[in-house]
Design brief:
The protein is α+β, with helices and mostly antiparallel strands. The N terminus is likely disordered.
């Protein structure tokens, strides 16, 4: 089941105590999903200007977490490192253990990846924009969304979802690669610096984004937006120190 796939920590929360988010004897690591190496067409001629030109990209094989990083997983990191909890940690709309952690900056997400790597001996990191789009498409070319071209409003119970915050992870049907909540729930930080015209100069194989910048790239939809599910090719970005209620992340390795 999707919730069993994604929930690495299941515990009851009591107030804002970090310890109540962290179960004992449970796995530190998320469930990895293998993304096979391959070519795909990145971008969209039907989207915004920053999604052009559509260009052919090769991505080496990598793993991506089946779900967005949860409050329970992030709580384990906070307890181990003594790091400051993000804003909204005590807000009842955002602090259930199986909800994705929100209001983490890019720097905090990167620090979590570094800590997770130290704990496990594996090279955890944030995905690149190209890796994220390759994974979101699920190996299917030329479609707007992970499921095809039908609009987001066609999803079951679309009008009743995401009223006051993100859903617990793993409640949506996975895409063809087995990734849940991809393109929805919360925006996901990527490793790249953002530049709107980057596609015109991007490397053909494993592009990593510009060398410098002022904003970090992000992908995926948001519970807070009018249209709550994005197209696979849609790009977004904010400064890396911002902490927004609809920003989270999932880890790659």
């Amino acid at each position: 089941m999707a919730r069993e796939l994604c929930a690495t920590l299941i515990s009851e929360m009591s107030g804002s105590r970090i310890a109540s988010l962290v179960g004992e004897g449970t796995s530190t690591e998320p469930r990895p999903v293998p993304i096979p190496a391959g070519w795909f067409h990145m971008g969209s001629e039907a989207g915004q200007e920053n999604e052009r030109p559509v260009h052919r990209v090769w991505i080496d094989a990598f793993d991506l977490a089946a779900c967005q990083t949860t409050n329970a997983e992030y709580g384990r990191f906070l307890r181990a490192t003594g790091s400051q909890a993000p804003p909204l940690w005590d807000d009842a709309n955002f602090n259930r253990p199986e909800q994705p952690v929100v209001a983490v900056s890019w720097f905090e997400a990167a620090k979590y990846c570094e800590w997770l790597g130290e704990m496990t001996g594996r090279k955890y990191r944030l995905p690149t924009e190209a890796e994220w789009e390759r994974a979101a498409r699920g190996g299917v070319e030329g479609k707007f969304f992970p499921w095809g071209d039908d609009p987001p409003e066609s999803l079951p119970n679309y009008g009743q979802r995401w009223k006051t915050g993100p859903e617990p992870v793993g409640r949506s049907a996975p895409n063809a690669f087995g990734l849940s909540d991809i393109c929805q729930n919360v925006h996901e930080w990527c490793s790249d610096w953002y530049r709107p015209d980057y596609y015109a100069v991007a490397a053909e194989r494993n592009p990593r984004g510009p060398e410098t910048g002022e904003r970090r790239a992000s992908r995926g939809g948001s519970w807070r937006h009018h249209i709550k599910v994005t197209r696979c090719a849609a790009r977004s970005s904010i400064p890396p120190d911002f902490q927004y209620a609809d920003y989270g992340f999932r880890v790659a390795l």
